[in-house]
Task: inverse folding
């Protein structure tokens, strides 16, 4: 029941409530809904709510409504968006479900955008719809959304007071931004609002800018309230879009709406978001990373703050200072300076703890004036802004990528009013303020702000931060104010350990230096002790105890001498009172005479020698190093202290110098004291005693200045040089002295880790100069002090003063204790210098310390290698020129011998008598022949060594210059110049000024500012900085400049009324220098707009402003100034400017020249190219186009090879310095002769050109660095490289001139060749004639050129002016041009005149010139054989032969294969011999010297036999009747080598002869030249006669045995120990194979030479071949007797010849001949009776066997053909045979032989049949045709031929040629006759006689002819 009750109660209550709700009541309708009872309560809701009681979300209902709608237009959409905003506003007011409302609203806006896009696509009427109002609604809605999300959204980690988590927050905001972008993309699809930029600012929250436009029409700048964007400069983005329509959206927020990100504190600036969409709604991104966009974001809240400013610190000099630094890492920070002055202010900054910045030492600098004007900023690209007296400098952290901190930046600021107050000794009251703020750039990515590598902060500009980005996105910046912590600035620089850790360079240098010094001190201490041992005065080993008179001898050995002398020196000292005799220069205790040392001795003599007048010194020339170069000898008479100086300066050696092992010296006196001597000695002492560096290693003189002292003096000077170098390096010029524009730039050249600048060179030089005086002081104390152990009493001083002449008194010296002062000075220099240098280095820092160390090294090297040597040379030259140095000064050895005790020089025994063997003084006149030969060979070796050294040095110098010159990359420069010229169409024909604009538009601009590739693809921004080829990078803007003339000229009066306009031509006076308005209107201030660049092109600028140099053109000389326009850097801007210039008539009638200059760099070839295009517009109306392209390697040191070239250039500088010194010495020696010496002038030209090359190379590098710096600091403005090009051209011209001269100098050593020597001397001989000829030709050229210029110059371009006419005629003279092709002359007169010129100058003139050269060439050749000719005109044939002999020797030792003895039987040997003979036969007459040498070398290479030792032959002497026979045989084998006969010598008078068999290779390897040694067939037999050879009256005969000899071989012999050689024929004797040769006496040497096919002799060399004789032929009766054998005579009847002539006679003696065979060559025909008498070699045959008969035939052979029998009278006497010839033909070699013919027939009666047969045989044999067929005849007649019938045609000839004498003979050729002639007639007689004798029966045979016919002999003559 209870349950039912309660249920009823609840039912009643419910019914009551229902009834009550149907009626309006307060609060019934929610959210301001209006309630009405109709009949029940009904709520009328506002737009934002729905539902019965208005408690549902109206946005959701509206969303559903939008979804259900099919279509609507832009008007309806506008209404919908407005409704959306109303709903949103109501929800905001009630704070009703704002997150959901925003979500529904985003969906509504998205749906509207989608529907509108579809409607626009489907409905063409929508193309004209205006969506801009709708877009504005979207922006307003986004503003509401941002406000709601900032209130409702939860940030990271927030859990209370928020309703949206991070994900919801992010999604809602990004959806709202996307809706805005989508509606703008719909706007792109319509045709309205194109090109109009709209900016929508909403409630200081959002600023939105949108632009609808085609890509190519997009403007560059888009500004919103809180940010801006500038599109890519090179328009790559715009050009990529092209004609496509896009919407560019720039959405900016006043502050970040992205509260949901993880790092909300990462940004503190406004936000910028850039989105570009196309018609499809697709977002477009940037494609070119090289062409970024510029964006700015607002930082007003930070930069407008005033509480962050702080006062700058005041310095004593009026400057203000602050330090900007940070302990955190940021990408950049902004330093702001609030200047309290509007005057000129200078701000300088420097990084690190390196002190205050100055005008010459800074890292950045800014100069301002007024409230917003920047006058200067350094470096280029410094991010600086100056507005309202606030200077903003953006500093980028270069260590940001590695997480490093930025170095502290020290800033100093000084304004003009500060300076004025400081000058009044008041500290400025103006307080400048500063603040520093770190800034960073972040990109919004998903849910956080992140750093980006694709965007970079650029700089601060007022209240904005500007940055560059390579993509579109959302960006923001952050800043952090850095409060100025007040720090102790001095403490920064006094942080010792930190600075030491950063700069340990000097400390490490100290440690290394001291370790080296200690080691060297220990070593040099030992060397000093050794020096004292060397310098001690020790007694000579042959001093006698009884001798009391003492002399001190100091012997100076030159540095070039042998290191240790192994030979023993001896001497003889002669004076006016006596001589020492032969003495040994040896003390028996030490090693003396080492190179560069002084050896001291005490010599005792029995008596005073008086005044010394001669010293003879020699060596025994023994040991491994016997060569001694003696510098000088000083002899001091100890009793009188008088010194004698014997200067030598030459080698005492048999190998070097004069090759004499002795020298005779005389003491120096004022009469013979020459400047050269003084200079040599002064220089030697300066280098090896005064020069500290060199004297440590070599200290030849006695000196109290030890090596250790020298070392520590050097160390002290090094430390002193360090501190002075640091002082100069740290000093800065004062502000008043320093130029403001140039102080900031100290140009440097980087070499690896080092930087070289003028400042370092200057500091190094100044430090060397300052340390010069302290070095003099320390050296003077150490050198001129007394030794502590020296004690001189007053009596000693008085006695010395009395006895010693005044001039020989000892110089004053410093007290011995001054050495302590010197050591103290050394310690002070080291300690003070080291300490202060160390402190300076800590102040410098690491980088500056490196630079300072480099300058210190430079100073030290300059001092040691440059200043000190120059000082020594200058002092030596000064002393030598003034002759102020006395003999005493040259002999100053500081008298150290006085400290030697008497006991030290006394000997205990007379050891000299028992142990020393004296060598006699060598004779200076007589030497053995062998010694003379050796001496001569050594001299030639020395001359050859000097020559080869000069050749080698010359070649190396040429190679060095070649590598330096090749560094200019000439070939690459040529190709690049050609490519650049062709690329701009340099062959374009310009006729009018319009053609110039056409060429610029169609050729120049598309090539230089290429925007597209050849295939039409767009280039990137970086690629657009290259020319069209893609290889040449534009270094700067391109300059377009013109020069103009002004004023009007006037013509002649008669035409002034007709011709009213006349334009002046261009020159310096008529050049226009006025300012104009555009269009060349008269200038006024109103027409000039400083913001229009083209207006500046009508303003005149000087050459300094234009940075151009004058130009020599075709029509005029153009100044460097003019009217300038700089073009670039992109194509669109260039085209715009060109069009403006063209529209303003920039080129008009007064324009005279247009210059277009561009600078490019090709990284592939490393070449800079300056391309200059010149259009000259002449007053004649002609326009010429000239293209000049110059490419140069302006940065020479980039790669490793470049540094090698740098080393070579340094070597080149050293060589030039050495050449200057040598040149000065040569001038000093030659005196006035150098003026007329061509070689000296050439050397001077080489030195001057080299110095100019060095200077201009340095200037070129300096100008290059300056130009590149200007490019970097000029914001891309044009920078001229013309100065660099000029210096580069001068440098290349100078270095090329040096190269040219050096190559020509190679002709001097090449004159070693005979032909080049003759040519060189001929040119020198002809120099006066050539000069006269040049003067004559010059006058002729001027005369002809003047005539042609006047007559045809108006019509022919080749003669349009005098220079051109002269050039044309000179080219014609040199046959460089042809007038028929190049010159067209219509004037007959001119043609005749030119023809006359061609004949007179070209033919006659050239022939005269050739005649001059020919005559001088002939004269020099004649001088070679003239013994009285000047030595300089004679070729050194002896040295030339010696050179080739050395080459042969070298080949024989190193290269040549050697054959064993007996190798002639080897098959290889025979083949090689055949090849050699073939080569010699082919090339015998081609080139005498060269081919002979080639042949000789080849023969040596393949036929050189193994070297054997000299073989002394045993001798057996026997007497035979009246002859003496010497048989020389080998002692081992007992085989006979040769037999010597001395006829008619009695046994008692026979000389004692010895014979040695010496291999030919022994002489070759010993350097002895033997002619034709390559043809040697035997060894050389060397005879040594120990008796008198005058007993040999009838000559001698040598028979050669033990070898394979032939009759054609030749014997070569010498009577004078191989000084001269002669040749004779071998004679076959005794039996076949045994040969002998007769001589007028016993030769000293002889050998057998291999046969030669041609033996060539000159007519003047017949004395070298006694078997040939020349005799004079006269008209009178004459009897010629041969000199070789006076038994042979030729008698000529009177008038047998018509003219005087000559005859060459040669005698042959074949084995078994009856008498000698005579060969005669006559230059005249000899007629009449010629009686010849010949001696009988044997008696005629008397014992004739039966059946054999003999006849005497006279055989004649003419022209070396066949022998013929002649009929003449023969008279056989007891010992001779005479014959008479009819004639001898002219110039016909005629051989005459008398032969005993043996026939196979006996005595026959005249009436017998046999006698008839003999007659027929004789008749047949006389028939020429018949006897020639003797071989066939023997075969047909069955006659067996013996060996005597073998044909022997000797192939060997002797040729006598005439090259010198003027007579009628050119060449005489004799064929050798080595066998008895066997003529065809004799052969025929023998064959027929043998045949007849062999007939079985001759019965009934009346004649032999029928019998012979049976053999069918076609050559048988008819009867």
Result:
């Amino acid at each position: 029941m209870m349950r039912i009750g309660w249920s009823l109660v609840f039912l009643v209550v419910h019914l009551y409530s229902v009834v009550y709700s149907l009626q309006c009541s307060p609060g019934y309708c929610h959210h301001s809904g209006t309630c009405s009872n109709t009949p029940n309560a009904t709520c009328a809701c506002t737009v934002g709510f729905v539902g019965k009681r208005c408690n549902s979300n109206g946005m959701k209902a509206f969303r559903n409504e939008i979804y259900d709608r099919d279509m609507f237009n832009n008007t309806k959409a506008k209404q919908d968006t407005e409704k959306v905003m109303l709903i949103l506003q109501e929800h905001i007011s009630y704070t009703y479900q704002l997150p959901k409302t925003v979500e529904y609203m985003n969906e509504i806006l998205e749906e509207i955008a989608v529907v509108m896009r579809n409607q626009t696509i489907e409905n063409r009427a929508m193309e004209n719809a205006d969506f801009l109002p709708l877009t504005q609604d979207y922006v307003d809605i986004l503003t509401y959304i941002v406000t709601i999300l900032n209130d409702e959204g939860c940030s990271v980690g927030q859990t209370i007071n928020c309703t949206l988590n991070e994900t919801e927050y992010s999604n809602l905001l990004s959806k709202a931004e996307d809706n805005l972008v989508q509606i703008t993309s719909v706007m792109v699809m319509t045709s309205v609002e194109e090109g109009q930029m709209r900016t929508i600012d909403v409630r200081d929250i959002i600023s939105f800018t949108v632009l609808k436009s085609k890509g190519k029409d997009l403007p560059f700048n888009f500004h919103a309230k809180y940010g801006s964007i500038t599109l890519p400069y090179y328009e790559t983005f715009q050009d990529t879009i092209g004609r496509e329509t896009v919407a560019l959206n720039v959405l900016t927020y006043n502050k970040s709406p992205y509260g949901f990100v993880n790092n909300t504190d990462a940004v503190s600036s406004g936000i910028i978001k850039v989105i570009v969409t196309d018609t499809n709604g697709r977002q477009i991104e940037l494609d070119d990373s090289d062409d970024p966009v510029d964006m700015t974001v607002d930082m007003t809240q930070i930069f407008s703050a005033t509480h962050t400013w702080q006062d700058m610190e005041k310095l004593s000099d009026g400057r203000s200072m602050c330090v900007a630094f940070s302990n955190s890492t940021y990408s950049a920070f902004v330093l702001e300076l609030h200047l309290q002055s509007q005057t000129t202010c200078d701000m300088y900054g420097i990084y690190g703890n390196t002190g205050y910045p100055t005008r010459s030492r800074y890292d950045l600098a800014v100069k301002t004036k007024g409230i917003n004007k920047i006058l200067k900023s350094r470096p280029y690209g410094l991010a600086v802004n100056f507005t309202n007296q606030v200077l903003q400098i953006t500093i980028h952290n270069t260590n940001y990528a590695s997480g490093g901190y930025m170095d502290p930046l020290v800033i100093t600021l000084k304004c003009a009013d500060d300076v004025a107050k400081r000058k009044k000794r008041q500290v400025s009251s103006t307080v400048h303020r500063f603040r520093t703020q770190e800034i960073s750039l972040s990109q919004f990515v998903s849910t956080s702000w992140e750093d980006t590598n694709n965007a970079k902060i650029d700089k601060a500009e007022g209240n904005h931060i500007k940055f560059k980005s390579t993509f579109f996105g959302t960006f923001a910046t952050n800043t952090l104010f850095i409060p100025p912590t007040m720090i102790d600035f001095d403490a920064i620089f006094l942080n010792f350990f930190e600075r030491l850790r950063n700069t340990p360079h000097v400390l490490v240098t100290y440690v290394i230096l001291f370790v080296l010094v200690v080691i060297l001190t220990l070593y040099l201490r030992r060397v000093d002790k050794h020096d004292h041992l060397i310098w001690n005065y020790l007694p000579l080993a042959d001093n006698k105890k009884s001798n009391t008179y003492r002399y001190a001898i100091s012997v100076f050995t030159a540095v070039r001498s042998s290191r240790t002398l192994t030979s023993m020196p001896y001497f003889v000292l002669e004076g006016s009172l006596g001589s020492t005799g032969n003495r040994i220069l040896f003390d028996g205790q030490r090693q003396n005479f080492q190179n560069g040392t002084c050896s001291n001795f005490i010599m005792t003599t029995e008596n005073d020698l008086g005044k010394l007048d001669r010293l003879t010194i020699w060596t025994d020339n023994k040991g491994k190093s016997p060569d001694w170069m003696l510098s000088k000898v000083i002899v001091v008479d100890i009793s009188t202290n008088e010194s004698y100086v014997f200067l030598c300066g030459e080698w005492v050696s048999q190998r070097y110098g004069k090759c004499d092992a002795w020298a005779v010296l005389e003491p120096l006196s004022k009469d013979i004291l020459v400047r050269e001597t003084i200079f040599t000695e002064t220089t030697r002492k300066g280098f090896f005693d005064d020069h500290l560096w060199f004297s440590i290693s070599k200290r030849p003189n006695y000196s109290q200045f030890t090596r250790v002292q020298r070392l520590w003096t050097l160390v002290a000077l090094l430390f002193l040089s360090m501190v002075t170098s640091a002082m100069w390096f740290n000093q800065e010029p004062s502000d008043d002295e320093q130029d403001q524009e140039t102080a900031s730039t100290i140009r440097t050249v980087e070499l690896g880790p080092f930087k070289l600048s003028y400042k370092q060179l200057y500091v190094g030089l100044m430090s060397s100069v300052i340390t010069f005086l302290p070095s003099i002081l320390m050296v003077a104390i150490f050198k001129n002090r007394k030794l502590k152990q020296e004690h001189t009493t007053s009596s000693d001083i008085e006695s010395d003063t009395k006895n010693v002449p005044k001039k020989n008194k000892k110089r004053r010296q410093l007290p011995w204790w001054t050495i302590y002062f010197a050591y103290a000075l050394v310690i002070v220099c080291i300690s003070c210098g080291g300490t202060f240098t160390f402190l300076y280095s800590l102040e410098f820092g690491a980088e500056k310390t490196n630079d300072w160390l480099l300058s210190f090294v430079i100073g030290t090297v300059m001092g040691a290698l440059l200043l000190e040597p120059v000082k020594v040379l200058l002092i030596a030259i000064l002393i030598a020129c003034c002759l102020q140095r006395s003999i005493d000064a040259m002999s100053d050895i500081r008298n150290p011998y006085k400290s030697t005790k008497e006991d030290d020089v006394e000997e205990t025994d007379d050891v000299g008598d028992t142990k020393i063997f004296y060598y006699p003084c060598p004779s200076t006149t007589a030497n053995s022949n062998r010694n003379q030969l050796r001496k001569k060979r050594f001299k030639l070796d020395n001359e050859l060594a000097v020559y080869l050294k000069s050749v080698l040095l010359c070649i190396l110098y040429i190679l060095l210059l070649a590598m330096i010159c090749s560094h200019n990359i000439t070939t690459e420069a040529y190709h690049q110049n050609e490519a650049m010229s062709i690329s701009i169409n340099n062959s374009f024909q310009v006729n009018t000024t319009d053609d110039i604009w056409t060429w610029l538009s169609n050729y120049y601009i598309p090539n230089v500012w290429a925007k597209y590739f050849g295939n039409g693809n767009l280039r990137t921004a970086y690629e657009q900085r290259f020319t069209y080829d893609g290889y040449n990078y534009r270094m700067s803007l391109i300059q377009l400049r013109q020069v103009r003339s002004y004023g009007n000229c006037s013509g002649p009066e008669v035409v002034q009324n007709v011709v009213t306009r006349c334009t002046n031509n261009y020159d310096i006076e008529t050049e226009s220098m006025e300012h104009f308005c555009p269009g060349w209107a008269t200038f006024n201030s109103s027409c000039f707009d400083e913001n229009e660049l083209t207006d500046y092109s009508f303003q005149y600028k000087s050459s300094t402003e234009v940075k151009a140099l004058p130009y020599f053109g075709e029509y005029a000389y153009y100044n460097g100034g003019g009217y300038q326009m700089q073009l670039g850097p992109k194509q669109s801007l260039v085209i715009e400017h060109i069009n403006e210039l063209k529209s303003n008539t920039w080129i008009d009638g007064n324009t005279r020249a247009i210059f277009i200059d561009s600078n490019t760099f090709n990284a592939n070839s490393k070449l800079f190219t300056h391309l200059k295009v010149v259009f000259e517009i002449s007053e004649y109306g002609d326009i010429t186009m000239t293209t000049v392209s110059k490419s140069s390697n302006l940065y020479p040191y980039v790669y490793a090879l470049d540094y090698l070239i740098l080393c070579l250039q340094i070597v080149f500088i050293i060589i030039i310095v050495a050449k200057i010194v040598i040149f000065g010495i040569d001038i000093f020696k030659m005196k006035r002769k150098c003026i007329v010496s061509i070689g000296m002038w050439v050397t001077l030209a080489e030195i001057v050109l080299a110095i100019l090359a060095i200077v201009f190379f340095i200037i070129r590098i300096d100008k290059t660095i300056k130009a590149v710096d200007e490019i970097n600091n000029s914001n891309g403005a044009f920078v001229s490289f013309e100065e660099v090009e000029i210096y580069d051209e001068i440098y290349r011209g100078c270095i090329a001139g040096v190269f040219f001269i050096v190559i020509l100098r190679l002709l001097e050593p090449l004159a070693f060749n005979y032909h080049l020597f003759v040519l060189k001397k001929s040119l020198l001989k002809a120099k006066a004639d050539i000069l006269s000829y040049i003067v004559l030709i010059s006058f002729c050229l001027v005369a002809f050129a003047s005539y042609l210029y006047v007559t045809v110059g108006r019509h022919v371009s080749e003669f349009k002016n005098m220079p051109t006419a002269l050039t044309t005629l000179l080219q014609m003279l040199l046959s460089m041009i042809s007038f028929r092709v190049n010159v067209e002359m219509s004037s007959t007169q001119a043609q005749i005149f030119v023809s006359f010129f061609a004949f007179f100058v070209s033919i006659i003139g050239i022939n005269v010139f050739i005649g001059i050269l020919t005559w001088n060439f002939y004269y020099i050749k004649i001088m070679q054989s003239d013994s009285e000719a000047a030595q300089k005109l004679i070729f050194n044939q002896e040295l030339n032969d010696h050179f080739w002999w050395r080459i042969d020797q070298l080949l024989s030792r190193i290269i040549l294969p050697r054959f064993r003895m007996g190798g002639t039987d080897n098959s290889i040997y025979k083949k090689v011999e055949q090849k050699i003979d073939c080569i010699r036969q082919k090339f015998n007459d081609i080139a005498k010297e060269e081919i002979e040498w080639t042949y000789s070398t080849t023969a040596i290479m393949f036929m050189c036999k193994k070297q054997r030792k000299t073989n002394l032959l045993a001798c057996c002497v026997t007497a035979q009747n009246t002859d003496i026979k010497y048989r020389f045989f080998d002692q081992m084998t007992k085989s006979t080598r040769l037999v010597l006969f001395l006829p008619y010598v009695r046994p008692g008078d026979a000389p004692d002869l010895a014979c040695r068999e010496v291999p030919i290779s022994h002489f070759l390897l010993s350097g002895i030249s033997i002619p034709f040694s390559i043809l040697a067939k035997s060894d050389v037999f060397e005879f040594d006669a120990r008796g008198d050879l005058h007993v040999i009256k009838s000559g001698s005969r040598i028979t050669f045995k033990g070898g394979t000899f032939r009759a054609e071989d030749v014997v070569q012999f010498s009577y004078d120990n191989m000084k001269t050689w002669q040749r004779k024929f071998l004679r076959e004797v005794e039996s076949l194979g045994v040969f002998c040769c007769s001589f007028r006496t016993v030769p000293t040497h002889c050998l057998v030479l291999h046969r030669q096919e041609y033996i060539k002799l000159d007519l003047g060399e017949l004395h070298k071949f006694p078997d040939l004789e020349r005799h004079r032929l006269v008209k009178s009766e004459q009897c010629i007797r041969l000199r070789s054998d006076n038994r042979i005579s030729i008698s000529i009847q009177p008038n047998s010849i018509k003219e005087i002539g000559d005859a060459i006679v040669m005698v042959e003696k074949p084995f078994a001949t009856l008498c000698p065979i005579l060969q005669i060559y006559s230059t005249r025909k000899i007629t009449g009776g010629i009686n010849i008498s010949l001696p009988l070699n044997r008696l005629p045959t008397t014992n004739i066997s039966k059946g054999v008969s003999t006849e005497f035939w006279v055989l004649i052979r003419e022209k070396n053909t066949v022998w013929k029998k002649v009929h003449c009278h023969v008279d056989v006497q007891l010992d001779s045979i005479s014959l008479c010839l009819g004639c001898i033909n002219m110039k016909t070699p005629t051989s005459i032989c008398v032969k005993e013919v043996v026939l196979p027939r006996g005595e026959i009666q005249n009436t017998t049949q046999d006698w008839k047969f003999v007659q027929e045989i004789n008749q047949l044999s006389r028939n020429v045709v018949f006897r020639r067929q003797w071989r066939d005849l023997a075969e047909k007649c069955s006659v067996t031929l013996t060996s005597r019938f073998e044909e022997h045609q000797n192939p060997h000839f002797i040729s006598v040629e005439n090259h010198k004498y003027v007579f009628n003979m050119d060449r005489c050729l004799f064929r050798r006759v080595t066998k008895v002639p066997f003529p065809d007639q004799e052969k025929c007689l023998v064959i027929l006689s043998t045949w007849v004798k062999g007939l079985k029966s001759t019965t009934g045979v009346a004649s032999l002819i029928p019998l012979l016919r049976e053999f069918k002999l076609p050559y048988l003559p008819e009867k």
In short: The chain has a mean pLDDT of 77.
